[in-house]
Amino acid sequence: MNLVNFRNGVLLFTVGCYIVLNQGFMQLRIPPGAGAPLGELVLLIALLSINHMKVMPQFLRSIFFWPLLLWWVFGIARAAMAFPEYGFWALRDAAHVIESLYLYVGFAMAIKVDQIERVFRWLPKILLIVGLYSLLFPLREELRDFSPTVVAAAGEARTLFFQFQSTSLTALVAVAYLLIFRPRKDGPWVVLVAAIVTGLVAMLFQSRTVYLQIFALAMVLSVTHGRAFRRGSIVICILIGALIALPELGIDMKGRLGKTVDINFVLNHIMAIAGIAGEGTEGAASGNALRAFWWGQIWREVSANPMTLLFGVGYGEPLVNFQVGDVNVREPHNSYISIGARIGAVGLAAFLMITISLLRAWHRAYRECGRIGWKIGQNRLLVLFLYFLFTWIVATNQDTFEKPYHTIPFYFLWGVTLAYGHHLKHGAYRPVRKARTMRAAAPAGGGARPAPGGAVPRGK
C-alpha cells in the first residue's frame, strides 16, 4: 500500500468515526485532555501530503474560489488575533472555518476516479452501520456504563460510544439510500426496514428537526425520484398507523424527552416548532422564546457599531450567557447566527456565496449525469445532497457547524461532490449500455473498476 492510499484510508476511517460516534469521537485529542483534536491533526497531515501543484488548479476550476479564499483568510486571521487572549477557545470557536478545509482535502482524495469509487463503496457501509447503531438508542443509558470515557474541553466526562448526537440525521440518509438505490424486487423489504428506522428516529429521538428532515426528504424525492417517493409515502403511512396503534395496543413507549410516543405528542411537537405549546411539549415551545432572546441580544451586540457589524465580535468569548449544569453554553443554537456574530456580515456573505457555488456545482454534476443517461450517478449525488440538506436544516436549530462531527463529514463529502463534477465535466465517465461493454471498457491491467448503472470510469 502506497502512502496516498494509506492517507486516504485514514481519512475515510476518521470521517466515518465522526459520522458514527459523533460527540464521543469529537473529544479525542492527542495528547489526551488538552491536546490537539484528532480531526485537526488528520487535516494537517492530509494538507501536508497533497500534491498542491497538481490538485489546486483543478480545485480552482471546480468552484468560485474568491469567497472561499476570503472565508479562510479572514476567519483564520480572526482566530489568530484572538488566540493570545483566549487560547484554545479561540480555535474552538473558529473550528467551522478551520474544518471547512476538509472541502479541499475531500476534493484532493477524490481527484482520481478509483478513489472516488472507493468513497462510494465506503458510504453505504457507513450508512448501514449507522442504521444498525441507531437501533441501540433505547438502550443508550445502560450501554454507556460499558463505554470508555474521554474528558471534554469543558472538563466534563463523555462516553466514547452511544452518544447519538447526529445519528438521527445520518439514519435518515440511510433510509433515503435504501429508498433510492434498492432494486424493485427488494421493494417490500426495503419499505419495512425504512419504516422501522424512520419510526425509531421520529418516535424515540424526539427532535423537531427530524420532522423537518422527513418533510424535506419527501419533497426532494417527489421532484427527483418518483419510485423512491412512492416507497417513502408507504413508509409515512406505516409510521402514522404505528403512532395511532401503539396506545390502542397498550404499548407505552417513551422517547428521548421522556414523553410517551403517540400521534398526539408528535402533532404537538410539530406545533412546537412554531412556538405553540401543547400537552407534553411546553418545554420545547418555551425553548423558542429563549433562543429568540439570545438572538436579539446577539444582534444588539453585533450591530452596536459598524466594525462589529461588518467583521463580527470575533472568537473566544461565549455568545450567550447560559449554563446547563456545570457546562457553559457558548452558541445560540443557530449556526448561521453564530457565523454572523463571530465574523460579521463579511464572513456571512462569504459563507452564503460558498454555499451557492457548491449548489451550482452539484446541479451541474447532476445535470451532466442526466445528459449521459447515468442514473446511478444521479442517485449518488441525490443521497449526498440529502445529507447536506439535512445538515443545513439542523443548523437552524443547533450549533451544527461548531461541532466537528457535523462539519468534517459535511465538507469532506462536498469536496468529493466537487471532484465528481470535475470528472463528469472532463469525460472521466462515459455512458455504457451493456454489462459486457462495461467490462470491456475498463482499463487493462487493473485500473479503476467499472461503476454500475450505465457508465464506466475511463481510467486514470
What does this structure look like?
This protein is mostly helical. It has helices spanning 3-21, 23-26, 38-49, 52-60, 65-86, 88-93, 95-99, 102-109, 113-134, 140-144, 167-181, 187-204, 208-224, 226-248, 263-271, 282-302, 306-311, 335-371, 375-395, 404-425, 435-441; strands at residues 29-30, 36-37, 149-151, 157-159, 322-324, 327-329, 429-431, 455-457. The strands form four sheets. A two-stranded antiparallel sheet has the order 1-2. Strands 3-4 form a two-stranded antiparallel ribbon. Strand 5 (322-324) and strand 6 form a beta hairpin. Helix 1 packs parallel to helix 9 (113-134) and helix 11 (167-181) packs parallel to helix 13. The radius of gyration is 23 Å and the shape is globular. The chain starts with a helix and ends with a strand.
Question: What distinguishing features does this structure have?
Answer:
21 helices; 5% strand; two-stranded antiparallel ribbon; 460 residues; mainly alpha; single chain; 67% helix
Helix and strand layout, with pairings?
Elements: H1 3-21, H2 23-26, E1 29-30, E2 36-37, H3 38-49, H4 52-60, H5 65-86, H6 88-93, H7 95-99, H8 102-109, H9 113-134, H10 140-144, E3 149-151, E4 157-159, H11 167-181, H12 187-204, H13 208-224, H14 226-248, H15 263-271, H16 282-302, H17 306-311, E5 322-324, E6 327-329, H18 335-371, H19 375-395, H20 404-425, E7 429-431, H21 435-441, E8 455-457
Antiparallel strand pairs: 1-2, 3-4, 5-6, 7-8
Helix pairs in contact: 1-3, 1-9, 1-20, 5-18, 8-20, 9-11, 11-12, 11-13, 11-14, 11-19, 12-14, 13-14, 13-19, 16-18, 18-19, 18-20, 19-20
